[in-house]
Structure formats: C-alpha cells, structure tokens
Amino acid sequence: MLQARRVPSRWPRQVVVGLLALAFATAGLAGSGLPGQLWYLRLAGDETLVAPADGRQAERVLARDSRPVPWPDGSQYLEYRRSGGAVDQVLVKDTRSGRVLHSADLPGLCVQFQPSPLSKSIVMAQCYRRLLDNKGIFVVVDLAAQRLLHSEPDQPRRHRYRWLPDGRWLRSHDETGRLSVRASDGAWQPLGQLRLPPGTRTRDIRVSPNGDRLAFIVGEFEDYESEKPKARAHLWTARLDGSQQVRVIADNATFDVRWSPDGRALAFNVDTSHCDFGDNCHGNSGWWTVDAEEHGIAPVVADARHAKATPLMRRFPSGNSAPLRGVDLLAWTR
Question: Which residues pair with 123 in a beta bridge?
Fold first, then answer.
C-alpha cells in the first residue's frame, strides 16, 4: 500500500509529478508474477547481485569484481579471470555455495562466453590475441574435460554466436544481418537474414528460450565507417530465420535485451537521458519489461507511467524497493 509522505518544498513540481506517476505505475509490480531470477552488476560498485524478477524478495550479493555468466537454469555460473599474460583462467562455480566445480586455462583474450543449454561443462566463446583485433577464433570448450571440442580461426569480430535450445549453434553477422546455423558435427547452413536499416548494425542478439524467435538491438551510427555510434538504438524481434521482423519500441535509446525464462516477456535497457556513449549515465539507465508479442509501442519516458512497459524493480535487504537502474542486467535465468 502506498503511504503518504511529506514532499520537500524545494523539489520542483514536475519532479514531484514524475515520482508520483512512477510510484503508481510500479505499485502493483511485486505481484506481477514475473518468473525466474535477475542477475545484475552494479555499475558503480562492481557487485553482482541476484534477486527474484517479481521483486518480492531482497537482492543478495553473489560476487564482487567479476561478471558472472550463468547457465540458463541459474544453478552455476562462469567467471573469467584475466591474467594480463598469454593465458587466462575460467572458473565454473556453484551458485548456492560458491564452490568451484571446474577450472581451465584458455589462451588469448576471450569474450562473449555462452554456456551450453545441454551441458554443465561446455561453453562457446570468441578469443583474440589482442583486444582490438578484427579477427579471432570461435571455440567450443569442455571445461570439465579441459578439451577443445571445436575451433574456427580467422572469424570476423562482426560475428555473434549463440546456442539454440537443441544444442545447435546460431551465427549472426552484425553488419549484414545474415543468419546461419549448424550442428556440432555438421557445416554452417544459411538460415535467413535480418533486414537492417542503412547505417545500422546489430548490437545485441538473443534467442528465445524455446528457440523460435530472436530479440535484437539495432544501433544507429553517426559515422558508419569509423564506427562512431549515435546514442540511438532500437529493440526489434523476428522469427529465428529473420522473418516477421517488427520493431518493439519506437524512437528510443535502447541498448540491451534479455528474454524472460518462459519466453513471454522481454527486459530492455533504456537510457532516458539520451546522453552519448561513454558518458556517465548510470543513474539514467533503467530496465523495463514488456510482453514479447508487443510492437510499435511508444518511447519510455523517465519517471513516467507507460501504457505497455513496466519498470523492473529491485528490493533491498531493508525491505525498500526501487526501479532497477544503474545496473547491467547480466542474465534472466530460471
């Protein structure tokens, strides 16, 4: 139940109106029944926290000074530790106890780790000799057996790799929108293509939990050749083959997307300040959720109620709650 509080007279009227609108918009969120767990990194404190997506229970600190990559069921997660040398360390930890389950050394600088939906020890990644290399190696590794299962050298940084729920691999090209798929024992096969507007690239692409749809961010560029981005990016969805492509939210600064574990909702990040990349916008960057079937909805406005989208909430150990802002949502697990 909302309780009346005295509003300081020094607050501008428009701020008070905005806060009241947001309070009414989020008052019923704790009972909204969002499934699963949110994993998020505090941008100002380097803490990773885990909390129920419905906001009914308090968040808890999971790790510090790392970016955990959880498996889809949330039972374990990967930590990548850079040594500054030729070999880096990968640890797999149990979420409840923090116990190390597997460890392995990987050469080079590896990014875009993706845990397998079918194995608790297999991951895919893209590895580079140097941070700014345009080409790297796509690898699939069994961390428990410390065995390289697959590698493809000289792969352009433009490629993004994702697991499909049945264990196949999806490859997308962020500039052309081309989509390909392959089984671990097969060859890459053309699947389809995303229709990217001129002067844009995909910034993030995610496969739905049942493997039939894509959610992706299309970013605009002030200078396409030099890769100077604009502070404008948009959320789209499509079928796995790129067909039935629709823009979910219009005219917004939307930079990341996550599927809910049941595939019925999307969480997306919005920078309502419209500040440039690299600026300190931690307090203006918030996470919202929307039905995955929506498209063409109005832009999100800071501290205002939205007809279709709802802000995700975080609950503190004190019992107080607030919109989920100033964090990087690493994952939304079961």
Answer: 115, 141
